[in-house]
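Our platform keeps sequence and structure together, in a single record for each protein. This encoding replaces a full spatial description with a residue-level series of whole-number codes. We quote a single record here, exactly as it is kept in our systems:
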Amino acid sequence: MQCFSDFPVNQQKEIKKEICTMLSKGKGYKKIKRALANQEIKISLSTLSYWCNNQTKRLRKNSFNNEPSKELAYVIGVMFGDGCATCDKKNYDYSLKLGTIDKEFGEKFCKCISQILNHKEIYPLHKCKSIYMTNIRSKELYTFIKAIKMDFEKAKPIIEEFPTEFIQGLADSEGGPLINATKKFTISIGIANSTNLNLLNYCKELLWQMFQIETKIYKTKKIGMKDSIINERILTRTKNLYLLETTRFNSTLNYYKNIGFSINRKQEKLKNAIKIMQNKTKELKSTIWKTIYYKEGHYWKNY
């Protein structure tokens, strides 16, 4: 006998439909449990009791829609970037989490997940110091994300139907405009930083085939490097880190027109850089850029 929670998402949906039918015919949860047991399906009385006593609301709300959609493609992109899927089996807590400094990024992520979970209200963001955070509980969606991370082939039909949204979700998480404002003013787009080289190679081909955007992959950090400091501990990198980046101005311009960022500060920075690149004389480009932005560490910020 197999537990209901261990069935694939598609089979869970079929079982739920069957439960709805039995409930509509007036069967109680004890009879439903026996009927399911006859089909080698194990489900707890407490779960069925909850569904029955709440007029099957649990069956009809927050059900995961895994059909290809713009929203699902965007969420997949984010989950291969800044998004995090966590599981606490002891407390039956399966969650998707995102923390970001950009409110509109968090809001878009919440809106997309609300859509694919058929949730009428948009999931909330919570601000903690300078970070906007969300924690969305759904075992079906958690299971789906874990499955495509183990077998990326399962995600490709969705991604290839909505490539714009997938790439944008990934770039909102991991990417941004890369501006060089020294003697020579140049623009490129860092689409994603990742240790997953297979993912970046796939995105490289996808960008070329779907949008004629030319990119290259660079190794930016090596195994063994002293990377970051957390709680006063220096961490040593255990995997190589790679960057997927546009290589020509025409490809950068093509990315801006066809994909872009949903994060305002990134899109505005890219827009301003392209405007300077197209309309200003070579000698003045860097100077004009520096009247709008100043550099703090590795990042250009507005005055």
Observations:
- Residues 9-24 form the longest helix (16 residues).
